[in-house]
Design brief:
The complex is a heterodimer of chains A (114) and B (113).
Chain A: E1 4-6, E2 9-13, E3 18-24, E4 31-37, E5 43-50, E6 55-58, E7 61-66, E8 71-76, E9 85-94, E10 100-104, E11 108-113
Parallel strand pairs in A: 2-11
Antiparallel strand pairs in A: 1-3, 3-8, 4-5, 4-9, 6-7, 7-8, 9-10, 9-11
Chain B: E1 5-7, E2 10-13, E3 19-24, E4 31-37, E5 44-50, E6 53-57, E7 64-68, E8 74-78, E9 87-95, E10 98-104, E11 108-112
């Protein structure tokens, strides 16, 4: 079955790097995602990676995918107080005809200490 | 360019009542998915609409139903509300060529008393 696991909390100092980890169980996942949710808000798509890639970099964000271990990580360089939020890992699989359903973890709450 | 919009922002209902939530997708998007996010949890997939038909459904009872209109906007209906239906309901839309990229709206916070 599908299951996505994340640690619940992470605390870092401003200016340091943050690394948020995620494991997933479904080896047929096509895309893996990182979403950000600020208090009282919806989900913001930060980045995603196709399952045949190992790494993707986008400005301060680096995503690493270890498909053998079913492990995904998000590294945020030079973490700022504005990065404080809940970060969700998600996987998706194609259900055919261009349809994708996302399965989310419970989220990691990132707290940035000034 | 307006993103995904949802209405209302907040809603309070009583057990047993029915509720309708609305979603307008991002411009150029034709596929709408609905998710339920309970407090402290990740979003859970309810269903997805494309070409005015339910294309995919998650593990939710028949009390949850939906509709998609010709302009691609969508409604989520929940009948016979239970206390456990209290949650943030999120709508996500995606484009015809990039259905794996789902963009979320701000959500509707439903409280059932």
């Amino acid at each position: 079955g599908e299951d996505v696991e994340q640690s619940l909390f992470l605390s870092v100092r401003e200016g340091d790097s943050s690394v948020i980890n995620c494991t997933y169980t479904d080896s047929s996942s096509t895309y893996l995602y990182w979403y950000k949710q600020e208090p009282g808000a919806g989900l913001q798509l930060l980045t995603y990676i196709f399952s045949n890639m190992d790494m993707k970099q986008d400005q301060r964000l680096t995503v690493l995918l270890n498909k053998k271990d079913k492990h995904l990580s998000l590294r945020i360089a030079d973490t700022q107080t504005g990065d404080s939020a809940i970060y969700f890992c998600a996987e998706s699989m194609s259900a055919g005809a261009g349809s994708y359903q996302l399965t989310f973890g419970k989220g990691t709450k990132l707290s940035v200490i000034p | 360019d307006a993103g995904v919009t949802q209405s209302p922002t907040h809603l309070i209902k009583t057990r047993g009542q029915q509720v309708t939530l609305r979603c307008s997708p991002k411009s150029g998007h034709d596929t709408v998915s609905w998710y339920q996010q309970a407090l402290g949890q990740g979003p859970q997939f309810i269903f997805q609409y494309y070409e005015e038909e339910e294309r995919q459904r998650g593990n939710f009872p028949d009390r949850f139903s939906g509709h998609q209109f010709p302009n691609y906007s969508s409604e989520l209906n929940v009948n016979a509300l239970l206390l456990g239906d209290s949650a943030l309901y999120l709508c996500a839309s995606s484009a015809p060529t990039d259905t794996y990229e789902q963009y979320f709206g701000p959500g509707t916070r439903l409280t059932v008393t």
